[in-house]
Design brief:
The structure holds three protein chains of three kinds. Chain A is α/β, with parallel strands linked by helices. Chain A has a single domain, classed as Hypothetical Protein Ychn, Chain: A (3-Layer(aba) Sandwich), CATH 3.40.1260. Chain A contains four helices and three strands. Chain A has a three-stranded parallel sheet with strand order 1-2-3. Chain C has one domain: DsrEFH-like (Hypothetical Protein Ychn, Chain: A, 3-Layer(aba) Sandwich), CATH 3.40.1260. Chain C has a five-stranded parallel sheet with strand order 4-3-2-1-5, with helices on both faces. The chains are: A alpha/beta, B alpha/beta, C alpha/beta.
């Protein structure tokens, strides 16, 4: 996934996830990697008249008890660690993306 | 197969690249900047018309609204996010 | 064992995609899955010979492609037309993938449990 605000990918992924939940689907996991790890930054502070991408994600993760994984290697490159990660997100390895590919009926990538 | 195209066909090769590999009869969803490919009267309208005869082409309504695009070519079907989810239910998905 | 595939379709260095794709291939191999690798479009440039990072320091990951077989990843394919468009032939590459035609790509994707395009 691309970075939030920089690219629409974060918004599309959020809207898609919300719509899939609304249709009764089980979301096994949302995996954030590349610049997508920036979605988890609790220091994110956008202007008040715009959507707050991180807060939207956190609410979705908590309300629906979904596993949101932030790729550890991508996070470390970008200065994202446990001290800046917001509620609802967890840091995990790339293997968790492979597990998704093995287990999920469908896998959708939102890329730049 | 559902092919996802999110880039403007006037800026990127991804729509044409997708068509090189997509089997005839498969589905293509234009979303984000990809929706500009669905506008009537553009330089690629003839190309898109021939694509719609070989593929099922969809365009994401929310991304059209956001961009002020309210007309699409004949042969292209408008879907919302619920429809997007429906297409994913039916198909494996390739993001170009 | 699940059939998984990583498709490389972007050029290296200008973006991180092909590097991320390679990391995914290695992890899938470590999970003992039935992994295929496919190079199409600018992805064919990710395995070009002669990469030299001595002036920039950006990590050169082409040696890792050469090591894929050591990870038991042997299903490696490349699209003929993508090579031709770029004036690249098999001799220019660090590995020797099996050459396929574009119309085989969607079928390969359909055969997988899941796949990624980088």
């Amino acid at each position: 996934m691309e970075g939030p605000y920089q690219h629409e990918a974060s918004d599309s992924a959020y809207q898609f996830t919300k719509a899939a939940i609304a249709k009764g689907h089980e979301i096994l996991r949302v995996f954030f990697y590349q610049d997508g790890v920036l979605n988890s930054n609790k220091l994110m502070d956008p202007q008040a008249d715009d959507r707050h991408i991180r807060k939207q994600w956190s609410a979705l993760a908590i309300e629906n008890n979904i596993d949101f994984i932030v790729c550890v290697a991508a996070a470390k490159r970008r200065g994202i660690n446990d001290t800046v990660i917001a509620e609802g997100f967890k840091i995990g390895g790339l293997g968790m993306l492979t597990e998704l590919a093995i287990e999920a009926d469908r896998l959708v990538t939102f890329r730049a | 197969m559902l092919h996802l195209v999110n880039k403007s066909p006037f800026e990127s090769m991804s729509f044409e690249d997708c068509l090189k590999y997509a089997a005839k009869g498969s589905s293509i969803l234009l979303y984000e900047d990809g929706i500009y490919g669905a506008m009537p009267g553009s330089a690629i309208a003839d190309r898109m018309a021939s694509v719609t005869s070989d593929y099922k082409v969809y365009v994401l309504k929310e991304d059209m609204m956001l961009r002020g695009v309210d007309k699409i070519m004949d042969g292209i079907t408008e879907v919302d996010y619920a429809g997007f989810v429906g297409l994913v239910e039916e198909n494996k998905t390739a993001s170009w | 064992m699940a059939k998984l595939m990583v498709v490389f379709r972007t050029a290296p260095y200008g973006g991180i995609y092909s590097f991320e794709g390679l990391e995914n291939v290695l992890i899938m191999g470590a999970y003992d899955q039935d992994v295929s690798v496919l190079f199409i479009d600018d992805g064919v440039l990710a395995i070009k010979k002669g990469m030299d990072n001595s002036s920039t320091g950006i990590k050169d990951f082409s040696p890792t492609f050469r090591a894929l077989e050591a990870y038991d990843i042997e299903k490696i394919y490349i699209d003929r037309a993508s090579m031709e468009v770029r004036g690249v032939s098999l001799e220019d590459l660090v590995i020797e993938p099996e050459v396929i035609e574009a119309d085989a790509v969607e079928k390969m994707m359909e055969e997988q449990k899941n796949f990624f395009i980088f």
